[in-house]
Design a protein that fits this description.
Strand content: 15-25%
Number of helices: 13
Protein name: SPP1 family phage portal protein
Helix content: 40-55%
Oligomer: single chain
Low-confidence stretches: none
Mean pLDDT: 83
Largest sheet: 5 strands, antiparallel
Number of domains: 3
Number of strands: 12
Length: 443
């Protein structure tokens, strides 16, 4: 799609509208919940405010499960060089690229990747969230035009970079040109997009923001109740004290009353900790349930089998697998733009459709039971297909080739030396040695 000013202006207006939808998910990930912002302040009472950020904890946990193991690229046609070029180029960009992409997706429900060349003509990738940019997408979800908003250091103005099929345009916030357009050579709008299936409805924020607020209100109420007990009152009946006498009493720690019938004791608040604790536990349990996470701080029974643990993690596996598919759509665009760059820069021609992208979940597995299954099915099922089930194998194709190479080296090193029967030099030398020995014996 070629740059259209009217569409760009409408896209800018839509961006300003959409920002309101993404402000709260960003706030909750950063720990700025409504509970902390709206907790009432009371005069002469304890006003402690703090949080326990389950939104960030769940998102970071899912990201670590998704990208803790390295993303594996493989060629369907066996083109090893294409895979090497992918890994070499991406590793030189950012080792945390996939982690950053997954985190942005789970916070905002949408994440963009912009592909460009730096001043040294090297291929670069930048992850952008919906608070920084917006894409004009077609019916298939492909970005046809993209607006990226940013500010320069020590400059309060907002600048816009607009990407289309051929150029990168540079504007200010009023779409006045501030620099000449730059050609990008990608032959398409160089922007990939990943979107959760149901948008913001699938985010952790949408699932538990109300529970998160209730949980923090409970914790803050509980803490402030304890704080208020420090202000426990001294109850005195049958006597009176002037303010000066109270100061002396406080300094000396002595109370003297005029009547033997006077009573002096502390007026304490009877706090029922079980009420707060049970309410907190119910809210926390509900947050774990709706996000399909497991509470790792709870001790596991010693007799729990690996199969039982895998069954408990199965709902989370399904959720993460669905999120993988959302990331794949963006990564396919990444490969398409990368191969275009390799063709332009190094005259290497690869087909991005030939590349298979595989995620390996970084979840606990019972590898001992899986190894037993592999040994039982070794002559019935493909070795590569079975080794993919082991948690520490992230690239079954590479591991299989390494195994064959190791076996080949072992056979070569352990095989007996081959005799060359056409070479008679050793035989002649041995015969001469025998003759010399016989001659010495005769003498």
């Amino acid at each position: 799609m070629i740059y259209d000013r009217q569409i760009a202006m409408k896209l800018y207006d839509q961006f300003n509208i959409n920002k309101n939808n993404y402000t709260e998910p960003e706030n909750y990930y950063n720990g700025k919940t409504k509970a902390q912002r709206n907790y009432p302040d009371s005069e002469n009472r304890s006003n402690r405010k703090f949080g326990s950020n389950h939104v960030k904890m769940f998102i970071d946990e899912e990201v670590s499960y998704m990208t803790g193991n390295r993303l594996v690229y493989s060629s369907k046609s066996g083109n090893i060089q294409s895979v090497k070029d992918i890994e070499t180029t991406i590793d030189n960009i950012n080792a945390c690229l996939d982690t950053e992409l997954a985190t942005t997706l789970l916070i905002y429900s949408k994440a963009y990747e912009v592909y460009y060349l730096d001043e040294y003509k090297d291929f670069k990738i930048k992850v952008i969230n919906p608070m920084q940019g917006i894409g004009y997408e077609d019916v298939e979800g492909k970005v046809q035009m993209f607006l990226y908003f940013y500010k320069k250091m020590l400059d309060d103005k907002t600048y816009i970079d607009l990407f289309d099929d051929k150029f990168i345009y540079h504007f200010d916030s009023s779409f006045n040109t501030v620099a000449p357009p730059q050609p990008h050579y990608f032959q398409r709008c160089p922007v990939g997009v990943a979107t959760l299936n149901n948008g913001i409805l699938d985010t952790v924020y949408n699932q538990i923001n109300g529970l998160q607020d209730a949980y923090e209100y409970t914790l803050m109420d509980w803490e402030n109740e304890l704080g208020d007990t420090r202000l426990s009152y001294l109850l005195m009946s049958g006597c009176q004290m002037t303010p000066e006498q109270m100061k002396i009493m406080k300094e000396m720690g002595i109370i003297q009353t005029e009547s033997a019938d006077s009573k002096v004791n502390f007026l304490l608040k009877d706090i029922k900790p079980d009420f707060y604790k049970s309410n907190r536990d119910i809210l926390e349990e509900e947050m774990y349930k709706v996000t399909q996470h497991l509470k790792n701080q709870i001790a596991i029974q010693s007799n729990s089998s690996g199969t039982m643990l895998a069954v408990r993690l199965n709902p989370l596996r399904i959720k993460l697998t669905t999120q993988y598919q959302c990331l794949k759509n963006c990564i396919r665009t990444r490969l398409q733009c990368l191969f275009t760059y390799l063709y332009q820069a190094e005259n290497k021609m690869y087909d991005f459709k030939d590349i298979d992208v595989k995620f390996t979940l970084n979840l606990p597995n019972n590898d001992y039971e899986m190894a037993q299954i592999i040994s039982l099915l070794s002559d019935k099922v493909s070795i590569k297909g079975m080794t993919e089930k082991l948690s520490w194998i992230t690239n079954a194709d590479k591991d299989f080739k390494d195994m064959l190479e190791e076996k080949k080296q072992v056979q070569e090193n352990s095989a007996p030396p081959k005799l060359n029967f056409n070479d008679t030099s050793n035989i002649t030398d041995n015969a001469d040695n025998v003759g010399d020995k016989n001659e010495k014996i005769k003498k």
